Amino acid sequence: MSDHPGEGSSSKRQRTISEQLQESMVAASPPKFISIGDIMNAAKGVTNMVLAHEIALDEDFRLEKQPESKLHKTVKSTVQQAFWDVLKEDLSGEIKIYDKALVLLQEIKENILGLLMPHQTPTRQQIEEVLDMELIEQQADKGTLDFLHYGKFILGIMTKLCAPIRDEKMQELAAEENVIKLYRGILDALQLMHMDFANFTIQAFRPEIQRQSIEYEKQKFKDFLATQEDGLQYTREWLLRNIKPDTYPEGASQRTINNMTLVSAYLELLEWKDENVFPETLLMDQHRFLALRELSEKIELVAAVILVVSASVQTASVSSTDFRKTLKQHTFDIVGNDYTMRNLENNLKILAAKIKSDVQEEIKKSNLPDVSPTAEDLLVRGIEDLFRKENRIRVLIRMRIREFLTTVLSSSTASPVKMPPGLNLVQEELTELTGRFNRLVSYNKSVFGDYYSEII
After folding, report:
1. Are 63 and 32 in contact, with CB atoms under 8 Å apart?
2. What gap in Å lies between CA 174 and CA 378, rounded to an integer?
3. 419 and 404 in contact (C-beta within 8 Å)?
């Protein structure tokens, strides 16, 4: 039985809202492969909101070849091998049969043309002239078709078009004189080049895709609300519990109140309680916000561990940057790689024993007096007690992280923000957290800001 009254019904409602949102807002699931044309269409008018949403929010978004099941891979390999075996037989007989070779050439020609950008007119004309299928069919009828010659021409075009990362593959194919191996290699390389070009186009069109995605999501969410009796119930609850009049400056404008409330609401997501139903306006990015919650807690723990060690063992060698970096790495290794609240208590005991050993080794290496049993006991108990979220050191670190994020979220400029005391060693991780969090918040406000203002 749930410990939280109404939790079962809330979960059911959340699933229902999530499903309806996806049906309403998502036209189709993201394709496993997308062409240049698909990406350019997405830039002109978003047709796949999930794909555009991912591109807009993930700066490192890349299309990658999807892994295949063993059965699918086996069937595909068998069918392809059968094609190449038949083609080899057709081209090696006394009377050559070019039917499949012509189909292959046409397919490759269309694939290469599909890689060209609109301004590459000369290359397009060259391909059309050399790979003139009507002329090639006449050569096939006369028995004068030099299939290897056309393969070398195609390879030359591909070498000019491909990304530098494919140069080695192109050089290998250039030395290939076996016509079947050459064409097979060409098709494999073309698949990789389509992926390369798609990813290049994604980067080039990212700002336009982002702008279109925001407008598209606004409209789709409006359509969703029209089908609901109250499609903002949990969004309203989330915002209203973050309205805190006693924190607002005297005479604060409504805009200031809105901004301060939103900052508080977004920061709540980094301490989100799982029994609460996630706001409707955040459902598409729930996994992202929860991942940032975990990252924030890891940063908090690492910084807290370093403070505990510094307070328990006050020697120069233990306080050195190199040793503190070792502590940081060991904390991430032991606590961070297996991070769940269920495992945290046990992992902190393992970490405490490890750091105790690290400290003893460092002290011995520096020819300093041994740490007293009292100090060691204080060290171990201090680390183990970090299991509690209300631990005073964790509370202090958490407060500093929140103040730092508040400053960033509240700033209207991109001016540098001073790193909080005690967090210099986790500056890289805190910077990553801040960047990802700020990007999510900015995008979410762009889409749903009008609804938030009305509620507040």
Report:
1. no
2. 68
3. yes
